[in-house]
Amino acid sequence: MIRTAVASDAVVIGKMWEKLVTYHRRIDDDMPQATANGPELYARSLMNRLEDSHTRVLVAEVDGRVVGYVLGVVVDLVPEMFEHEAGGFLADIYVEDAYRGRGIGRALVENLAAWFRTHGVNHFEWHVAASNVEALGFWRALGGRDLMIRMRANIE
Amino acid sequence: MVALWHEKMMLQSQTGSRPALLPDAQNRWAAAVTAWVDDSRCGLLVAEHNQAVVGFIIGCIEDNAPGLAPARIGRIVDLVIDVHSDQSGLGRRLLDPLCAWFKAQEIHEIRVQVSPANPVEQAFWRASGAVEWFDVMWMRI
């Protein structure tokens, strides 16, 4: 079952976010590192936006247990020099390891896309770790197309 | 600067990139440059040759996402070189002082977005120490 997140989901979402960050760090040392209180900061930030009409947090429940979530925002991603298109941004998505391969990720994306459409959004963007082969395959299977490559460099 | 930026955008649009430029995009970009010049979180450097601007770089300091380190990062807004210029090494000569400015502001990580259809730009950034980090993807719904 996919449903809108509520305040009592904060802790479990914070923990899933931490797993997402840890997974990224495991496949690539250059991935962002969580601060010591990162999960709490992230969960608090999410919960503060639950009433925000431009933000949607959905969770996937199996047998009463939250096993995945997605965070999306309606946002103007286009600089003012370009034709305006109402757009969405999928900021984070995570499904617990044991529940992958059951269509839960796809269901989260489809439900978020349906919510985007109710806000007049006709496209959305997201970032995928370049080293996350599994996620790239997931997104390409859903019809995701390449837009830009995001690069980083240390300037120590 | 406006003409150089517009030429880069027109070249990029030939690769089918999205979204499309507005008819008054150059005026809008000129207004944005004025805002960047006045913004203490942004650095803007130009390269001149024979009193003509042959390239520029713009970088801004931004907050990282909640819960992630470092707290602030440097974003390269634009790096544009006149494709007709015979000045080699211009990109590096623009990037190095911008990085020095970032470091003076306690910024030690920079991020930049490049087009997947622009291998020259990708090669420049790789040669400058950048690594491919995230793919920005999209879909219509």
Structure report:
The complex is a heterodimer of chains A (156) and B (141). Chain A contains 4 helices and 7 strands. Chain A has helices at 10-27, 38-47, 104-118, 133-141, and strands at 2-4, 33-34, 55-62, 65-75, 87-95, 123-129, 145-154. In chain A, α1 (10-27) crosses α2. Chain B has a single domain (2-127), classed as Aminopeptidase. Chain B is 35% helix and 34% strand. Chain B has helices at 2-13, 25-38, 90-104, 119-127; strands spanning 42-49, 52-63, 68-69, 72-81, 109-114, 131-140. Chain B has a 4-stranded mixed beta sheet with strand order 1-2-4-5, with helices on both faces. In chain B, α1 packs across α2 (25-38). The radius of gyration of chain B is 16 Å and the shape is globular. Chain B starts with a helix and ends with a strand. The interface between A and B is large, with 52 and 48 residues. β7 (145-154) of chain A pairs antiparallel with β5 of chain B.
Give a concise summary.
Chain A has helices at 10-27, 38-47, 104-118, 133-141; strands at 2-4, 33-34, 55-62, 65-75, 87-95, 123-129, 145-154. With 156 residues, chain A is of the alpha+beta class.
Question: What labels would you give this structure?
Answer:
heterodimer, A: 156 residues, 5-stranded mixed β-sheet, 4 helices, B: alpha+beta, 4-stranded mixed β-sheet, 34% strand
